[in-house]
Amino acid sequence: MVPVAAILGYCLAAIFVFALYTIIYQYTYWKRRKMLHLESVPIIGNNYPILFGIDSFPMHAQKMYKKFSGARYYGCFDFRKPVVIIKDPNLIKTICVKNFDDFTDHLTFVTEEMDPIAGRNIFSLKGKRWKDLRSTLTPSYTAARMKLLFELIDECARNFSQYFLENPEFAKSFEAKEVFTRYTNDVIATAAFGVKVDSMKDQENEFFMHGKASTTFTSKLLILKMVLLRNFPRLMRLFGATFLPRSSDKFFKKLINEAVTLRREKGITRPDTIQLLMQAMDKEDGVYVTMDDILGNAFIFFLAGFDTSSSLMAFIALELAANPDIQEKLQQEVDLQLEKNDGKLTYEALSDMKYLDMVVSETLRKYPPAPITNRVCTRDHVFSPPMQGYPEYRMEKDTVIMIPIYALHRDPQYFPEPEKFDPERFNEENKSKIEAYTYMPFGHGPRQCIGNRFALMETKILMVHALRKFTIKLTEKTVFPVEFIKLSFNLGAVGKFWLQFEERKKVN
After folding, report:
1. Distance (Å, whole) CA 275 – CA 287
2. Alpha carbon of 275 to those of 269, 298, 453, 458: distances in Å?
3. Does the keyword Transmembrane apply (predicted)?
4. Contact between 288 and 281 (Cβ < 8 Å)
5. Rounded Cα distance, 76 and 26, in Å
6. Could you tell me which residues are beta bridge partners of residue 85?
7. Half-sphere exposure of 415 toward its Cβ, with a 13 Å CA cutoff?
8. Which strands make up the sheet holding 470-474, listed edge to edge?
9. The CATH homologous superfamily of the domain defined by 40-503
10. Alpha-carbon distance 337 to 335, whole Å?
11. For residues 158 and 217, what is the distance between their CA atoms, to the nearest angstrom?
12. 3-state SS, residue 37
């Protein structure tokens, strides 16, 4: 029988050896490669400003980007994982497009090992499985498919606008992110799941409540859970931890299973992701698709649409309220296009709203949906030196790359007066002058966001219906300029998005 004290001693010794190894590994990893790098804190790497609430996620990324002026890239640590920060637009092109086959994968928060359902989505999958799924899903995001979904989304936007007309007191002061999330919830419910809900009238409908529980990324406990899932997946799996709350996981599985069963039994077809995956399940063409794939990708479609699209809408509304001249110009375009179409919004009329495109593009520059994107090196690749005085760098397979989108979008070298909201950056003359690979709100190359066309369409439809009826104004509770929430993975605003919809006197 081994004494308890001896077992405890062995455990402490093992912990000490592990800690010592980690410290030595981190302090020597980049030095052994003669690589330009930041010194890091053992175990937590260069993430301490985020973990201890010193900086918000985008501000930390921007500070990291500004390190080593003139460098094209450099090394650092994400907890115990070595990471290369890319600053040079030409290298971004190399990684995302030119030599894409060397950098095909994403580093993901959720893998199949962590969560068998949520980990089977197009963002998380790697290699051939990702490529097969991408080719299967791409047809659901073509312009033709978007046109088929237009009427469903337009109905949600009309219901949304009508609620404010019927509730003028509510319109005097509301939290925009919250109400826009209700709209995106309804859009996804009808466009992806075939479920009709009105979340403005039915404030606590089950679809919305589970969506909200699944996409709240500002909770300290959730951030800790995400960090642990990412760095200690086997241990967290041992404790039964999953990405989704258990109740929401159960709800979405039931909802999607019922939708698939109903479509098969009734012969119902819809122009959406679920339908394409169902068709792929029935084919014998070498692309293996299971029910878990349908569940995982329906969920990621919901996750992306529910939270990131509503954030984009909230930032657009806030900037329009803070810049009434821009808002007035946009309203004039909306009025003109609707007048040409007898007051009816059509897919073609929406496509003709060029100033709306400019406003949305500038909002995406200033507030990109993902402050950072990443790639994983899938085979060794040699980079020229990061800056003068350093040798070339052979990036080894499995090395993680971070591309700081938010920081690129706020770099005055590429976007003069980056804090200024200026849609004219994206007019026909100026947008051609933007340096390639410095503007990438949805990423670049084959791994760019597959659903960006859908997100842009639902955003533009909503803004047209809001601006045709209302003028958006700031309130006493509005916090502007925006200050970002700390301990959050996305661009959340301190003080939220308090705004007012003032009904226009002359409306279409």
Report:
1. 15
2. 7, 10, 18, 20
3. yes
4. no
5. 9
6. 74, 402
7. 26
8. 174-175, 498-503, 470-474
9. Cytochrome P450 (1.10.630.10)
10. 6
11. 29
12. strand
CB distance 80 to 22 below 8 Å: yes
Residue 425 is encoded by which pair of tokens?
């950056």
Please check whether residue 460 is in contact with residue 314, taking contact to mean a CB–CB distance below 8 angstroms: no
Cα separations (Å) of 79 from 23, 32, 241, 323? 11, 19, 20, 41
In the chain, the amino acid numbered 428 is E
Residue type, 303: L
Cα–Cα distance measured from residue 21 to residue 15, given in angstroms and rounded to the nearest whole number:
10
CA distance from start to end of the chain: 86
Query: Residue 241 has which token pair?
Result: 């931890």
- Spacing of C-alpha 332 from chain mean position: 31
Tokens, residue 488 = 């959050």
Within 193-232, where are the H helices?
206-214, 220-231
As given in the structure block, the two tokens for residue 13 are 């010794």
Q: Where are the domains of the chain?
A: 1-32, 40-503
Instruction: Give the closest residue to 273 by CA, choosing from 290, 304, 307, 297.
Output: 297
156 is in an annotated binding site: no
Contact 84, 400 (CB under 8 A): yes
Task: Please name every residue paired with 73 in a beta bridge, in sequence order, or none if there are none.
Answer: 86
In this structure, what token pair is assigned to residue 217?
Answer: 């990324």
Q: Which of 154, 150, 251, 161 is nearest to 200 (CA)?
A: 161
Contact 209, 508 (CB under 8 A): no
Residue reference for tokens 């039964």: 240
> pLDDT tens per residue, the chain (508 residues)?
557 677 777 777 777 777 777 777 777 899 999 999 998 887 788 888 887 878 888 888 899 999 999 999 999 998 888 999 999 999 999 999 999 999 999 987 666 666 666 677 788 888 888 888 888 888 778 888 889 889 999 999 999 999 999 999 999 999 999 999 999 999 988 887 778 889 999 988 887 887 776 666 555 666 666 666 666 666 666 666 666 667 767 777 788 888 888 888 888 887 777 777 777 777 766 566 777 777 777 777 777 777 889 999 999 999 999 999 999 999 999 999 999 999 999 999 999 999 999 999 999 999 999 999 999 999 999 999 999 999 999 999 999 999 999 999 999 999 999 999 999 999 999 999 999 999 999 999 999 998 899 999 999 999 999 999 999 999 999 999 999 888 777 788 888 999 999 999 865 5
Report how far residue 508's alpha carbon sits from residue 336's, in angstroms, rounded to the nearest whole number.
10
Read off the DSSP letter of residue 446.
Answer: G
C-beta separation of 348 from 37 below 8 A: no
The DSSP code for 435 is P
